[in-house]
Amino acid sequence: MSEIWGIVLAAGESTRMKVQKLLLPYQGKTMIEKVIANVTYSGVDNTLVVVGSNKNEILRVIDLLPVSHCYNDNYKQGMLSSVKCGFRSLPGTFEAALVFLGDQPMIPSEAVNIVIQAYRQSNKGIVIPVYQKKRGHPLLIDMKYREEIEKLEEQEGLRGLACKFPEDVLEVEVNLPGILRDIDTREEYLNAIN
User: 0.90 cut: is pTM over it?
Assistant: First the structure.
């Protein structure tokens, strides 16, 4: 089964924002709903949401959406723990997975499709969208790296995978600045909704 999965990381505590930012309003939805909509309107076959902090509130909001979810017990350890939880929760066989941050509602479906298309045409196992020479999200990772992800250390994060296998990395230029923008502070949130 050659499925492409989207893994949406939604387990963080939003410590800088002081409220759970994924539940804040964004374009008529909550931020997490907007991110999921962007993913599900793209060429991704299935979507998995990794929850942790504020699990019940987030699950209540996404309950009727066409996604599955997993719970990351270790969410306080950082983002890589959620990536590992996501990859562990995928079915036995899949083709590749794209990793999305729950606080990046400005990534359009178009960016996702460009990354998937580049993956299909390139035979590369790690595909990263780039805007003006800066790497952004979503990062696409071939299934063959599933076990390698388990070996990564929290401080290196997913970047460690690209550093270990540079010959298998494809950077794909997208003219979409949203791939770089996440929302960590109140100010960034206000800028995004205005």
Answer: yes
Taking the C-alpha atoms of residue 42 and residue 40, their distance in angstroms, rounded to an integer, is 5
**pLDDT for 97-118, tens place per residue?**
999 999 999 999 999 999 999 9
| Beta strand extents in the chain (DSSP E only) | 4-10, 25-26, 29-30, 46-51, 68-71, 96-101, 126-131, 134-135, 139-142, 169-173
Give residue 121's Cα distance to chain centre. Answer: 22
Domain 4-193 architecture: Alpha-Beta Complex (3.90)
91 preceded by cis ω (within 30°)? Answer: no
Instruction: Give the residue among 55, 49, 67, 58 at the shortest CA–CA distance from 22.
Output: 58
Domain limits, the chain: 4-193
